[in-house]
Amino acid sequence: MIAIAEVTPAWYLVLGAILFSIGTVGLLVRRNPLVMFMCIELMLNAVTLTFVTFSRMLHDVNGQSVVVFVLVVAAAEVVVGLGIIVALLRKQPTATADDLNVLRG
Amino acid sequence: MELFVFLVAGGACIAGALGVVLSSNPVHAALSLVGTLFGIAVLFVAQEANFLAAVQVIVYAGAIVVLFLFVLMLLGVDRSEDLSIEPLGGGQRIAAGIIGLAVLALPLLAINSTEGEATGAGAQPGDANALQDGVADVAQLGESVFTTYLFAFEATSVLLVIAVVGAVVLARKVKRADYVNDPLMSASGDVRTGRSPLDAQQLPDVESDSSTAGAETT
Questions:
Q1: CATH number where B59 lies
Q2: Residue of A nearest to B27 (CA)
């Protein structure tokens, strides 16, 4: 028999930390702006998972309320960010994040 | 049972996350992202956040990933990349690994130091924000959002309107003829010059300003 380990909320926190760090590495390593954007979504989801876990640990509904607002802000961010990426890639289809230097001082 | 659910959903999350980072084709990355989002939705259900799980599937997996795929297909940038060249090579990749390990180590040390317990005050059973057993999470979440966070909720509606306006402004092509006919840009509305499409792509320069000025004087 396999010993049945009990899933404590700390497991969810560890999973959230792993997902967040994978997203961070992806954001730093990849240069395709769309893939970088997906990595940002990954990090946002890791944080929402952490919020829900803390909501359960503390028996507090505020953690879930914050997740609702994170979802709304993420949707707005994706809309504007993809608009910028479309404008960038339409001009230069092979553009990477290094080409976003128009505003550089 | 919760162990089984956690292992399967957590494995899907991590596999999807690695797929996003490591796949050379952006379409594969977007599909891997769906795996991660579904895994997190399952973990939400496992933690009795059923409404958030539904919203996660509808908004993230349904809307956001489809938006990503739309942009990928629209722009035709769904070709594969050479991952030995495309990501920053050499030292910067090592630096990214070190930063990633540091970002991972910080929360793990924090979790370890508190032995997996939350150190916050927590909600007392009588508080308005306390999660009550036996009450649907939608009811509690709705009460919280529409009373405690009512102002923030209204502010997000303004944020969404601004995002929509911003997306329209960013994504529209500015044709030169439109630009000249725009009442905000030109006093006279009937200046329409037959230019080649190449010129129409560019924003009006000094010459076009002088042409509109000439139209005003005539």
A1: 1.20.120.1200
A2: A35
